[in-house]
Amino acid sequence: MEKILIIDDNKLILKSLKESISKMGYTTLEAEDGEAGLLLVRTEHPDLVITDFQMPGIDGLEVLSKIRKLNISLPVILLTGFGDVVLTIKSIQLGAFDFLEKPIDPVKLKSTIQFALNSVKVSNSLNEVLHVDASSVHMLEDNILVGKTPQMKEIFKNIGRISMSKVNVLIQGETGTGKELIARLVHYFGITINQPLVVVNCSALSESLLESELFGHVKGSFTGSIRDKKGKFELAGEGTILLDEISEISLNTQVKLLRVIQELEFERVGGEEVIPMKARIITATNRNLETLIKEGKFREDLYYRLKVFTIDLPPLRERKEDIRDLVIHFLYKLNKRFNKNVVKIGEGVIEMLKAHDWLGNVRELENTILQAIVMSKSDVLEKENITLNFRQQPDGKVIQELPQFRSLAELEKYHIKRILEEVNWNKLEASHILDITRPTLNAKIEKYELVRD
Ligand SMILES: Nc1ncnc2c1ncn2[C@@H]1O[C@H](COP(=O)(O)OP(=O)(O)OP(=O)(O)O)[C@@H](O)[C@H]1O
Ligand SMILES: [Mg+2]
Q1: What is the pLDDT of residue 400?
Q2: Model confidence pLDDT, tens digit, residues 182-214
Q3: Do residues 310 and 379 both lie within one domain?
Q4: How far apart are CA 109 and CA 338, in angstroms?
Q5: Based on the domain organization, do 251 and 170 belong to the same domain?
Q6: What SS3 state is found at 442?
């Protein structure tokens, strides 16, 4: 029979809780203050602790944090006054399983206890998973790349091949496949390791700002340029410049970039001094540049200069065998960041994740795990806490039952919001997926008063 420890300085509450919990068929232990309760935790090893918050001496939160240090998985339910939001947040942060508001509703009490004890059982039946198979981890400083499918292994080999020379590399892949991560590894794994790595997001800036960002400018070259400024090419020195979302640069800037690559030198905007270019150029794109060439939006000659070596990152749905290791890696990384301790994976979770299409790729997986970790009450990654996003399939089938919408506008609002969340509010990506321009997207965000969750 499971043992439940109740801690409350109010004798009446203690008595009534003891009665109702005994009736449910559990053994009870009682303590009238935090110290006595903690002693019982050490000596009697209860399966669950229910503790009042306000008590003389050490309060419920302190009891909770002390228990957490003694026993990481013993569930603790806190009793709080009505609507104590701050306390609720704090107790959850400190790892409370749940909290019950006073006066205590017996039905809620019973279901919370059952749920807590059951989650311990589930947890005990599972092993901790927080070690990724070493053969699938490739790590440098903070850049950890996980993958052991043949496709990813081939990519690792290629990184090895190109990292000892400074050839230009084009990295192609759908959104969220890890292009930036790969670029970082190319830089850090190779002869550029002690040189700077400079990242420029080409979609974030207007044409003229981008040029001054890339090449720098001299004082007075345009309004507001009050002093000379070095551009990213200069700052990259003999290291790497990563031009992210290269598809977004204008044809004018493309010409200038081509010139830099051909002549290996450039001038700052408005300047005359010729500056040598020694950096390796890595470009990344989630759009098909060959299509853009056909449409006259991207220069073919530049394309060939950039793709001396090409890395094609496969979408996650084509390397589902990596999902388990990725999940473990994200648990490890996100637990640390959010001070959580989700170290086990519930039954069926990996299968469920493998069945999903992951149109937002590894980033979507990471966000899904993040949400689940934040929602989890125990140390187990549970199916219930995993929310998968569904989108229209390439064959036009929608694989999720949508809420019932009356008007087209409602549907549009819902859809835009969902896509935005999926791409982490990267408006450029969202506008590509939605196939509308960015200004149109902005107008719709305003119209529907969309805000980030
Ligand atoms: N193989 C992997 N192992 C571990 N983490 C990964 C892997 N691939 C991607 N990630 C993580 O997924 C997230 C998205 O990766 P990244 O930003 O490199 O994608 P991207 O292809 O540049 O996306 P976008 O096209 O949207 O810019 C990052 O947090 C990254 O660390
Ligand atoms: Mg990127």
Answers
A1: 43
A2: 999 889 888 888 899 999 999 988 888 899 999
A3: no
A4: 28
A5: yes
A6: helix
Residue 66 CB contacts under 8 Å (≥ 6 apart), including other chains: 38, 58
Please identify, by atom number, the ligand 1 atom nearest to the C-alpha of residue 181: 18
CATH number of 159's domain: 3.40.50.300
With respect to residue 136, please indicate whether it lies within any of the assigned structural domains. no
Going along 260-383, which residue ranges are E strands?
265-266, 275-276, 280-285, 309-313, 344-345, 380-381
Q: Which of 73, 93, 69 minimizes the C-alpha distance to 380?
A: 73
* Number of domains composing the chain: 4
Q: What is the mean pLDDT of residues 266-285?
A: 93
Q: What confidence tens digit (pLDDT) does each residue in 139-178 have?
A: 555 678 888 888 988 888 888 888 888 899 999 999 999 9
The response to whether residue 173 sits with its C-beta less than 6 Å from ligand 1 reads yes
Distance CA 348, CA 124 (A): 16
Ligand nearest 172 Cα, by number? 1
Residue 322 sits in the same domain as residue 312: no
Regarding the beta carbon of 362 and ligand 1, being less than 6 Å apart is answered yes
Q: Are residues 175 and 253 in the same domain?
A: yes
Q: Which helix (H) or strand (E) holds 77?
A: strand 76-80
3 state SS of 179: helix
Task: Pick the residue whose CA is nearest to atom 25 on ligand 1.
Answer: 175
- Cα(286) to centroid of ligand 2, in Å? 8
Say whether both 349 and 430 belong to one domain.
no
What is the torsional sign of CA 204, 205, 210, 216?
A: negative
Parallel/antiparallel/unpaired status of strands 265-266 and 48-52? unpaired
Residue 313's φ and ψ, nearest 5 degrees, are -85, 120
Probe residue for ligand 1, chosen from 363, 421, 423, 429 as the CB with the greatest number of ligand atoms within 8 Å:
363
Element (H, E) at 422: helix 408-422
- Ligand 1 centroid, distance to 336 Cα (angstroms): 18
Query: DSSP class of residue 297?
Result: S
Ligand nearest to the CA of 177: 1
**pTM for the complete prediction?**
0.72
User: Which range marks the domain in which residue 14 is found?
Assistant: 3-124
32: Cβ–Cβ under 8 A, 6 or more apart, which residues? 7, 8, 9, 11, 14
- Which two structure tokens, joined as six digits, stand for 433? 């997926």
Q: What is the pLDDT of residues 418-452, one digit of tens each?
A: 889 888 899 998 998 888 889 999 999 999 989 88
Is the same domain home to 368 and 338?
yes
Strands 98-101 and 76-80: parallel
Do 312 and 347 fall into the same domain? no
The predicted structure's pLDDT at residue 148: 83
